[in-house]
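Inverse folding, one chain.
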């Protein structure tokens, strides 16, 4: 296997690969987008720009100001199972980075044309432009001017898979909406990072879809993304539960009298220890309680759940969105009681404000 001199990137051994259920190819656009924004965050970027062209149909570019890619890693970075972030499975429990399987870039190569421009602090003002083939082999390398950071350029999605590409083109608006929703999750939860997302339609100029301003507080991210009108409908919650070694649920939720959305997944964002995820049982619980107070509305939810790192499992699904909290049933029961207490004072109040 390839190994550069000062490279931190190493191939995971077979057992570790099997344990973390790798071997997954990028299945859709939103997974690709999720992986690249996580890489930028892992690279400690404080500014991340995501540019869609034609809703992602033509290309997607992600520009960050992170630490850049170590030159010794250029050859290996897009090969399957190469990562600089994890060596043994037992490190998973203390994992502080988003990525750890070393398969995102290789999957992106298999699904699109990947070009990377990157520059480390030491290399400034000249970085490098790297092109990879479908197998993740480096095929072209040239010097280009670049400040510290990394640009990931992906185009021609699913070119090698005509059937997939046809479905992709047909469903592009839905795929694009899913991308935005995934990206908004990171933009909501990440403080001290400026995240700007834009799209350029085939005819017309580039539109900003949303942007955050390097805020210190999640509340200001919410305001940047949903607008101040929506933010006014929210109440801060801070629940503590005596489950496992203690679980807290903190964040913002709309009052049950406000009309906030008729689709259950409109504006509901869940995080575990700041990691965006899908928590179906918790979401279901919250929606059910709200329905007891307001038949037709779903609440806006932006909450972070703090759980000790060895009391949940993140690698249940390949895209790491599904997380299993130990004793989740108990958490749901206690959350339901807290929410009913929270909603009770609003029972006889007629809805006065709303956004629909
Ligand atoms: P993983 O994130 O699991 O390590 P990836 O395939 O996503 O695997 O990325 C492979 C490697 O490429 C990372 O470990 C990292 O060293 C490097 N890398 C990818 N994107 C960036 C980026 N935006 N900035 C700096 N390094 C990056
Ligand atoms: Mg990654």
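Residues assigned per position:
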């Amino acid at each position: 296997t390839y190994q550069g001199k000062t490279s931190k990137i190493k191939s995971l051994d077979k057992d570790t690969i099997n344990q973390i259920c790798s071997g997954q190819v990028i299945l859709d656009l939103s997974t690709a987008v999720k992986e690249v924004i996580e890489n930028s965050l892992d690279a400690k970027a404080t500014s991340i720009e995501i540019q869609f062209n034609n809703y992602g149909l033509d290309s997607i570019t992600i520009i960050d100001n992170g630490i850049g890619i170590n030159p010794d890693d250029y050859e290996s970075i897009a090969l399957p199972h190469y990562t600089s972030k994890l060596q043994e499975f037992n490190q998973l429990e203390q994992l502080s980075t988003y990525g750890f399987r070393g398969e995102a870039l290789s999957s992106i190569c298999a699904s699109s044309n990947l070009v990377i421009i990157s520059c480390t602090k030491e290399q400034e003002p000249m970085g490098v432009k790297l092109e990879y083939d479908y197998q993740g082999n480096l095929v072209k390398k040239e010097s280009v001017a670049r400040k510290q950071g990394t640009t990931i350029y992906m185009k021609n999605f699913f070119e090698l898979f005509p059937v997939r590409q046809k479905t992709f083109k047909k469903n592009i608006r839905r795929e694009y909406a899913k991308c935005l929703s995934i990206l908004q999750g990171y933009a909501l939860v990440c403080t001290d990072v400026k995240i700007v997302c834009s799209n350029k339609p085939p005819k017309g100029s580039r539109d900003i879809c949303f942007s955050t301003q390097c805020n210190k507080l999640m509340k200001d991210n919410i305001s940047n993304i949903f607008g101040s009108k929506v933010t006014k409908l929210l109440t801060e919650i801070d629940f503590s539960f005596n489950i496992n070694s203690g679980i807290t649920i903190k964040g913002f939720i709309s009052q049950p009298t406000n009309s906030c959305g008729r689709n259950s997944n409109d504006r509901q964002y869940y995080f575990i220890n700041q990691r965006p995820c899908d928590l179906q049982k918790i979401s279901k619980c919250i929606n059910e309680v709200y329905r007891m107070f307001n038949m037709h509305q779903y609440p806006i939810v932006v909450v972070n759940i703090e759980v000790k790192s060895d009391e949940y499992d993140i690698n249940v699904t390949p895209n790491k969105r599904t997380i299993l909290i130990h004793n989740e049933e108990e958490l749901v029961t206690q959350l339901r009681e807290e929410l009913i207490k929270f909603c009770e004072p609003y029972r006889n109040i007629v809805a006065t404000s709303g956004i629909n």
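The chain has nine helices and 17 strands. Residues 10-211 form a domain with the Heat Shock Protein 90 fold (CATH 3.30.565.10).
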